């Protein structure tokens, strides 16, 4: 029996390689078809816990979409996005900031939307001698200690807190004792950790699991500060506009609004 010729061996190897390449190509194509569609979200800090639940709803309705969530100050995000930060969806604690991005040509007018109305509370930590029940007036005495708020320079909740203190006639008395957080979540953390004796922070945060049941709080009258109309926008430079818009629809849908209401947000138009 003669040994196989070299040319015959090469021909067989060529067929095997083509078959292998075809199989690999089909596998790669299947993997690409099931790749995650990542939506990079710049979100106001008051959404920190509510948005985690909305992300679960997104996963249920759109299994191929995943949220990459970054929380911070709404004003700081505007600066970052204007300077080219790679976000797809922006959720602000002040709709005005989202409108600025539309005016700057970074988002289309039809991609602007309102999603919630935020609310302020006066919160004191466990063990504090301060009873918040009477409202902001308990902060008047100097021995009431330090008061945490978000930085009003770029955080809507900080501006609202200053306005509420001014409406109560307490701005000048309390200002020297203010401790400023980079955002409202950090201001709440100052209170939780004992680095501030009280805080004027977001209702959504004190209703969330890490803070729920700790300390005492009372809602600040909504007519004492500018209405916290919260709005967002899908950015024109989004890597996947369809996926970013799908996330927006989940947030504005029945499931998303139920989550927002559970965390103390009012709905637009209310």
From TrEMBL:
The signal peptide, as residue positions, is 1-26
- Residue ranges of coiled coil: none
| InterPro entries membership | AvModA-like_subst-bd, ModA, ModA/WtpA
Keywords in alphabetical order, please: Metal-binding, Signal
**PANTHER family reported for this sequence:** MOLYBDATE-BINDING PERIPLASMIC PROTEIN, TUNGSTATE_MOLYBDATE_CHROMATE-BINDING PROTEIN MODA
In the record, the note on similarity to other proteins reads:
Belongs to the bacterial solute-binding protein ModA family.
> What is the protein name stated in its UniProt record?
Molybdate ABC transporter substrate-binding protein
């Amino acid at each position: 029996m003669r040994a196989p010729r070299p040319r015959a061996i090469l021909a067989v190897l060529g067929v095997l390689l083509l078959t292998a390449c075809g199989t690999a190509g089909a596998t790669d194509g299947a993997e690409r078809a099931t790749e995650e569609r990542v939506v990079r979200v710049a979100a106001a800090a008051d959404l920190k816990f509510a948005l985690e639940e909305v992300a679960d709803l997104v996963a249920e309705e759109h299994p191929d979409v995943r949220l990459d969530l970054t929380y911070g100050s709404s004003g700081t995000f505007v600066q970052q996005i204007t300077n080219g930060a790679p976000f797809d969806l922006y959720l602000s604690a002040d709709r005005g900031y989202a409108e600025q991005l539309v005016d700057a040509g970074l988002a289309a007018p039809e991609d602007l939307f309102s999603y919630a109305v935020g609310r302020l509370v006066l919160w004191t930590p466990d063990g504090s001698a301060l009873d918040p029940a009477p409202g902001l007036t308990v902060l008047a005495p100097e021995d009431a200690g330090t008061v945490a708020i978000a930085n009003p320079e770029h955080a809507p909740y900080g501006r609202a807190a200053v306005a509420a203190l001014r409406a109560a006639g307490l701005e000048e008395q309390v200002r020297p004792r203010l401790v400023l957080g980079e955002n409202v979540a950090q201001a709440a953390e100052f209170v939780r950790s004992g680095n501030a004796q009280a805080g004027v922070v977001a209702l959504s945060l004190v209703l969330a699991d890490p803070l729920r049941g700790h300390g005492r709080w009372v809602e600040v009258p909504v007519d004492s500060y500018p209405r916290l109309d919260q709005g967002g926008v899908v950015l024109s430079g989004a890597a996947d506009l369809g996926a970013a818009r799908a996330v927006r629809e989940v947030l504005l849908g029945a499931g998303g609004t139920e989550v927002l209401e559970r965390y103390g947000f009012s709905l637009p138009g209310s």
